[in-house]
Amino acid sequence: MATVTDHVAAPQAAAGQGAAEAQMPETTDGFHLVIDALRLNGIDTIFGLPGIPITDLTRKAQAAGMRVVSFRHEQNAGYAASIAGFMTGKPGVCLTVSAPGFLNGLTALANATTNCFPMILVSGSSEREVVDLQQGDYEEMDQLAIAKPLCKAAFRVLHAEDIGVGVARAIRAAVSGRPGGVYLDLPARLFPQSIDAEAGRRSLIKVVDPAPRQIPAADAVQRALDLLRGARKPLILLGKGAAYAQADADIRALVERTGIPYLPMSMAKGILPDTHPQCASAARSFVLPEADVVMLVGARLNWLLSHGKGKTWGGKSSKEWGGQKFIQVDISPTEADSNVRIDAPVVGDIGSCVAALLAGLGADWPRPPAEWTAAVAERKAKNVAKMAETLAKDPAPMNFHSALNVVRDIVKANPDAIVVNEGANALDFTRSIVDMYKPRKRLDVGTWGVMGIGMGFSVAAAVVSGQPVIAIEGDSAFGFSGMEVETICRYGLPVCVVILNNNGVYRGDEVNPTGGRDPAPLVFVKDARYEKLMEAFGGVGVYATTPAALRQAMEEAIRSRRPTLINAIIDEKAGTESGRITALNPTAKKK
Ligand code: ADP
To answer: What ranges make up the beta strands (E) of 97-138?
Structure first.
């Protein structure tokens, strides 16, 4: 690994120079201290967008051997950094310019915090003196104050000798406890500050144990096990916190040794293969209201789980508790009781908690009652058969099912490929149709259901893993980050984008009721040729109107590893408003 001395201004010791000059101390500067502090902590990649005042930082970082991935818009770089953090457990770093660049990155920072992804947004900023007196500097903005409410922690470094502390604090804040976003403000004047190289070296901190294990209390583990043991209809619910924890073998052992049916949340798919006999995904609407004890592992009872109450959970009204008892395994002690009573909170890191639960099972752990597992299996078989029937149809034009049937086969044949997924119907159908076989291979819109993660996640997934990436995109969702196909081509990444194109948001057949010239607000240009966008930058573009054409193009994309965009033409009448979250649309509710 390069050290500070690799970058220091060399002493002027060349032949012919005076003795005084030869003894000039070695110096380093803010640029190199930032780079060295990151590298010292194993951070070898920066996602960002160069410009004043961080242009040279990107050049120098690349010269020092870091991977610098430059995007076309900071939001996409930010999403890339955040998902790199989720995949690796190390904070992903996004680097932006001041004010507008910073603000563009801020959506991703807030999204990272919401999703518990460790990320550090590093932004250059204007001079404090001018900003604080509001004298109108270039890109003037009090960035630290603006970032604070949107992240776990925010720090500003004013002196080069404090860079080591600033980076160390940012890393600890991002990955310890519940992971999240951190903002690091680096004013322009910091970068050229020159200090003695040895002092600089000593100022850097290699963070020891940045995400310390948090061992759960023995009585909390016992309480949870007692509750689980007495259940007649137990259910395990795995969330993306369980995927993040990288405790895959122990989680699998816990599920298999207890014999309890489990339900993976979207980004937890693949911790155990979706084809696992205990997977209850195909019986979701049956197991949630029926279960009597539910163990949440790294999943929150937020809107994605109907807040743990209401009809989804067997409650008689939309607000009523269904009567389940909950165990919640989570690193955050304040998560319990956020929506309904948690009868057995187990607070600690998932690795330690699951290990403790496993150790407490004992040899005499009873299998769950056979009536329960048989009922789940029966419902599952019925729904799987119904789905197989739907998938076997071959309508013209294609619909979501016939297109995703192809994607399902391709992912099955390539289980190491990473699936990125966003949209409304494109998201819902892909989540339920495409099985995942390995952990952390499905990356999607997460806790906010945010649109725009597509190309940023795809770039990061390819860069971090080296594996092929398959991005399943609604045509609307793709529009938020579509320009990053240039980034995909520039870095030659093995990304295959499949746009499920039905000519609009949700669907493409709405019309302007006034008969006026403007199109309806939710429709796009009909028969848009998105594939040409990829061709414009040297990638492969395919216009696919049949499942056979889609299959051939996807197989070729995976084989060749060339950037590919497949414009998969779907029936414009396919799709419902807001996909599965129609009920959240206030007017739709009244209908
Ligand atoms: P999902 O959307 O899949 O249901 P959430 O994002 O709602 O998942 O929940 C993830 C939960 O996992 C959060 O409450 C977070 O505190 C928790 N978590 C994240 N990392 C860990 C970890 N290493 N150990 C324990 N809990 C974790």
So the answer is: 119-125
- Whether 265 lines ligand 1, by a CB cut-off of 6 Å, is yes
Within a domain: 473: yes
- Give me ligand 1 centre to Cα 375, in Å: 29
Pairing of strands 262-264, 194-196: unpaired
* Burial 10-23, CB ≥16 within 10 A → b, else e: eeeeeeeeeeeeee
pTM (two decimals) = 0.95
CATH number at residue 369: 3.40.50.1220
Residue nearest to ligand 1 atom 20, measured at CA: 241
- CA-only gyration radius of the chain, Å: 26
Residue numbers in the chain where pLDDT is lower than 50: 1-6, 8-16, 590-591
Which H or E element spans position 327? strand 325-330
Distance CA 135, CA 545 (A): 58
pLDDT at 518: 96
Question: Distance (Å, rounded) from C-alpha 488 to C-alpha 484?
Answer: 6
Instruction: Read off the DSSP letter of residue 50.
Output: -
Query: Where a domain ends, among 344, 377, 410?
Result: 377
Any domain includes 309: yes
pLDDT of amino acid 496: 99
The CATH number of the domain holding residue 568 is: 3.40.50.970
Distances (CA, A) of 413 to 402, 431, 487, 555: 17, 17, 27, 10
Q: Rounded to the nearest 5 degrees, what angle is found at the Cα of 418, between the Cα atoms of 417 and 420?
A: 140
What is the residue range of 365's domain? 218-377
Ligand 1 centre to CA of 240 (Å) is 6
pLDDT in tens, 452-503: 999 999 999 999 999 999 999 999 999 999 999 999 999 999 999 999 999 9
As for how many domains the chain has, the answer is 3
